[in-house]
């Protein structure tokens, strides 16, 4: 390291701080309670359950295709509580960017350009790595896969034999392995057309990826399940909505698309395997928000060879820095990294899902959970979708839920659609009569609340965000208000 490297060092420090900031931002989503609880069940019983005991409406065998992710999350929580979860998420996130950086540099991209490419990947994947979810592992495996494909394009075809191992872990962690399989098939076809790969590897690489996808407790049954359930029509889930419904996410999408355009202008036929897979992902990302992070990472890693040798070896420097300036750079770096480390230590123990003055729209108030606990509510709970797994964590086995974030893994389409109609109907609460629950727990904003009142349900708890109904009126203890930030697991 010489004085002339100082500008590059400063830019590198800025990139590191951005990556650390993204890795440190951690929040809970409605499924976190279920992921950890189901993982704890697997670790304690040493078996993956096929029958569900948490919901009274579950009507299909439990296809838990995320069981390995949940076991890892449960192990992290059992070992270190919320701090253990935060640490696991931070390490996976840093692993993603470390693999991406190595892949970009191995592609021959000089350090200044490589830092710009890595930042281009940070922004679209940011929303994927904020929450502690199984999709974190999908992003990690995708990044490893893309790095592997780049190495294969450089002539290391023996790396194809690692595909079964990668996909075996991936298929047991998250359903995103389907995207990875499609990437392998599409990339191999384009590589063969462009002359980068011999045709025999198209069938061989695709078969190896599919073989890994079979190494799960479910085998071909998982393929059938995904064929029936995976699609683009999930407008009731934010992550599956079209990208244009979240305009702020169009900016990172446009950055990744600009990379494809630049690579196209520099490429030719041999650039097909670099260009086509990201372009296909980019088009799909316009329809499904969740795929934007995959698109961003695929654009940066696969297109990295198109930028090999461009730009300066180091950022230009007008004059050699003085000793005082170098000391200032060192002190600044130490303070910045120390501050980031202190922030990590301070925030690791709280995986937040609400904070004073800013409430996530899905999160119920703490008082509702406390009310159900102190009054020892028992029986069946007809609940809102987003409340299901929080109720499972805090209230099972005394209360069984009617619906939760597992959706098609335990509930038939009929049960899913019936709940959706019930939530939206201002005039018909007949589904509550059909299910015959002991209690109903819903947000105030749902239209069906009016129908429940007319249908003879009594309000036994009313908070600022949700309401709990019972069939008969009674005397219940009302909890005191809860103030301040709320951290997983709450209430």
Give an overview in words:
- This protein has 491 residues and is of the alpha/beta class.
- The chain folds into two domains: 3-30 and 63-307, no CATH class; 359-487, Rossmann fold.
- The protein has 18 helices and eight strands.
- It has helices at residues 6-24, 32-45, 67-106, 111-125, 135-153, 163-173, 177-194, 200-214, 220-229, 250-266, 272-287, 292-303, 323-347, 366-374, 388-395, 413-424, 430-435, 448-454, and strands at 352-355, 358-359, 379-383, 399-401, 439-443, 458-462, 466-470, 486-487.
- The protein has a five-stranded mixed sheet, sandwiched between helices. Strands 2-1-8 form a three-stranded antiparallel sheet, with no helix packed on it.
- β3 (379-383), α15 (388-395) and β4 form a beta-alpha-beta unit.
- It is globular, with a radius of gyration of 25 Å.
Q: Secondary structure elements and their pairing?
A:
Layout: H1 6-24, H2 32-45, H3 67-106, H4 111-125, H5 135-153, H6 163-173, H7 177-194, H8 200-214, H9 220-229, H10 250-266, H11 272-287, H12 292-303, H13 323-347, E1 352-355, E2 358-359, H14 366-374, E3 379-383, H15 388-395, E4 399-401, H16 413-424, H17 430-435, E5 439-443, H18 448-454, E6 458-462, E7 466-470, E8 486-487
Parallel strand pairs: 3-4, 3-5
Antiparallel strand pairs: 1-2, 1-8, 5-7, 6-7
């Amino acid at each position: 390291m010489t004085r002339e490297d100082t500008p590059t060092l400063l830019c590198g420090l800025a990139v590191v701080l951005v990556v650390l900031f993204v890795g440190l931002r951690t929040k809970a989503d409605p499924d976190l309670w279920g992921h950890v609880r189901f993982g704890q069940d697997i670790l304690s019983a040493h078996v993956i359950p096929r029958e569900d005991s948490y919901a009274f409406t579950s009507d299909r065998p439990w296809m838990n295709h995320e069981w390995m992710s949940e076991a890892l999350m449960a192990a992290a929580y059992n070992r270190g509580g919320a701090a253990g979860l935060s640490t696991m998420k931070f390490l996976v996130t840093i692993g993603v960017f470390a693999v991406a950086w190595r892949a970009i540099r191995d592609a021959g991209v000089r350090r200044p350009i490589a830092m710009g490419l890595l930042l281009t990947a940070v922004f679209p994947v940011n929303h994927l790595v904020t929450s502690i979810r199984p999709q974190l592992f999908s992003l990690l495996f995708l990044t490893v896969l893309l790095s592997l494909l780049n190495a294969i394009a450089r002539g290391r075809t023996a790396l194809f034999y690692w595909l079964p191992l990668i996909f075996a872990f991936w298929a047991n962690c998250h359903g995103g392995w389907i995207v990875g399989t499609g990437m392998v098939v599409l990339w191999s076809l384009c590589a063969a057309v462009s002359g980068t790969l011999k045709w025999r590897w198209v069938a061989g690489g695709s078969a190896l990826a599919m073989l890994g996808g079979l190494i799960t407790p479910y085998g071909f049954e998982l393929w059938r399940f995904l064929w029936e359930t995976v699609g683009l029509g999930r407008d009731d889930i934010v992550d599956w909505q079209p990208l244009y419904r979240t305009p702020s996410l169009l900016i990172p999408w446009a950055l990744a698309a600009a990379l494809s355009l630049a690579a196209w202008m520099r490429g030719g036929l041999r650039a097909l395997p670099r260009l086509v897979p990201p372009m296909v992902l980019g088009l799909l990302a316009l329809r499904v928000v969740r795929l934007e992070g995959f698109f961003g990472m695929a654009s940066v890693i696969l297109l990295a060879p198109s930028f090999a040798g461009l730009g300066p070896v180091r950022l230009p420097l007008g004059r050699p820095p003085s000793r005082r300036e170098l000391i200032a750079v060192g002190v600044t770096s130490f303070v910045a990294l120390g501050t980031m480390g202190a922030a990590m230590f301070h925030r690791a123990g709280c995986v937040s899902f609400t904070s004073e003055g800013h409430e996530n729209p899905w999160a119920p108030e703490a008082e509702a959970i406390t009310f159900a606990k102190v009054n020892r509510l028992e029986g069946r709970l007809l609940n809102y979708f987003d409340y299901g797994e929080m109720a499972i964590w805090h209230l099972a086995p005394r209360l069984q839920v009617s619906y939760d974030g597992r959706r098609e893994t335990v509930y038939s389409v009929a049960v899913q659609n019936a709940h959706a109609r019930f939530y939206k109907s201002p005039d018909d609460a007949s589904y509550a009569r059909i299910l015959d629950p002991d209690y109903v727990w819903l947000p105030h904003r749902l239209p069906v609340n009016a129908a429940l009142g007319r249908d003879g349900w009594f309000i036994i708890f009313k908070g600022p965000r949700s309401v709990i109904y019972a069939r008969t009126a009674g005397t219940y203890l009302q909890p005191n208000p809860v103030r301040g930030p709320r951290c997983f697991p709450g209430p």
